[in-house]
Design a protein that fits this description.
Blueprint lengths: L2 H12 L12 H10 L5 H14 L3 H5 L3 H8 L5 H19 L7 H5 L6 H10 L9 H9 L9 H11 L5 H14 L23
The structure holds a DNA duplex (10 and 10 nucleotides).
DNA sequence: ATCCCGAGGG
DNA sequence: CCCTCTGGAT
C-alpha cells in the first residue's frame, strides 16, 4: 500500500462519516454561517445564528439591518465589525446580481465581501462540488504528514492535495483533516501517543 | 500571555 | 508580504 492510501485508510478509521457542525436550512444560512466562522469556533457561531436568522431571515432583510444592531448580535464571535459590514454587503450583492441566490461559481463567491478562497471552498464543498478547503488545520496536518512542505502557502497545499488525492475523496478527506487537526493533531500539544498516523508523521522534526 | 477554525487592505 | 480586526481557548 502506498503512503497516501495508508493515510486515507487511517483517517477513514478515525472519522467514518465526517460532518460539519454547521447546520443550515438554506443556501443563504449556509453562506452566512460559513462567513461568520472565520476565526471563530462552531460553538460560537451556533450561539449567534439562531437570533441572527430569526431577526434577518432573508438576504433582503439582512442587507437593510442597522449596523449597530448586527454588531450587537455578532459581538460574541470576535471580528464583529468586519463581519457585520461584510454580510450586509454580501446580502446586497446576492440580491442585486444573483437574484437572491447563492452563486455556485468560485469567482462569484470570492467576489463577495468576507469570502476568500477557504470560505468559497467550504461552501462549494457543501454544494457537492469537489473542493479542498485549506484552513490552518488542514495545512498543518498536511505538512506533518508530508503531503506538503512546511513553507507552502495555503494555495500550494491545496494544489498538492488535489494532485495527491483522488477527486472522489477531496471533500471527505479535507473534512477528516479538519477534525483530526482540531482535536488531535493540534498545533500546540498534539496527542501523539497512540496516534494511528504516527508512522507517516514528521512531527516534531519541523 | 499567547495563539488562533481568515479576509481585506496598504 | 505584513498588518489589523476581536473573542475564545489554553
Amino acid at each position: 500500500m502506498g503512503r497516501v492510501k495508508d493515510i486515507l485508510s487511517k483517517l477513514d478509521a478515525l472519522y467514518a462519516d465526517p460532518k460539519s457542525e454547521l447546520h443550515h436550512r438554506s443556501d443563504f444560512e449556509l453562506l452566512i454561517s460559513v462567513i461568520l466562522s472565520a476565526q471563530a469556533t462552531d460553538a460560537a457561531v451556533n450561539r449567534v445564528t439562531g437570533k441572527l436568522f430569526q431577526q434577518y431571515p432573508t438576504a433582503k432583510a439582512m442587507s437593510k439591518a442597522p449596523q449597530a444592531s448586527l454588531e450587537a448580535v455578532l459581538r460574541p464571535l470576535g471580528l464583529y465589525k468586519n463581519k457585520a459590514r461584510n454580510i450586509k454587503k454580501t446580502c446586497r450583492i446576492l440580491q442585486e446580481t444573483h437574484g437572491g441566490d447563492v452563486p455556485r461559481q468560485q469567482t462569484a463567491l470570492e467576489a463577495l465581501p468576507g469570502v476568500g478562497r477557504k470560505t468559497a471552498n467550504v461552501v462549494l464543498s457543501a454544494f457537492g462540488i469537489p473542493r479542498i478547503a485549506v484552513d490552518t488545520h488542514v495545512a498543518r496536518v498536511s505538512k506533518r504528514l508530508k503531503l506538503a512542505e512546511w513553507e507552502d502557502s495555503p494555495r500550494t497545499v491545496e494544489k498538492k492535495l488535489m494532485d495527491a488525492l483522488p477527486k472522489s475523496r477531496w471533500t471527505r478527506t479535507h473534512h477528516q483533516m479538519i477534525l483530526f487537526g482540531r482535536y488531535r493533531c493540534r498545533s500546540r500539544k498534539p496527542a501523539c501517543e497512540g496516534c494511528p498516523l504516527k508512522p507517516w508523521c514528521r512531527y516534531p522534526d519541523i
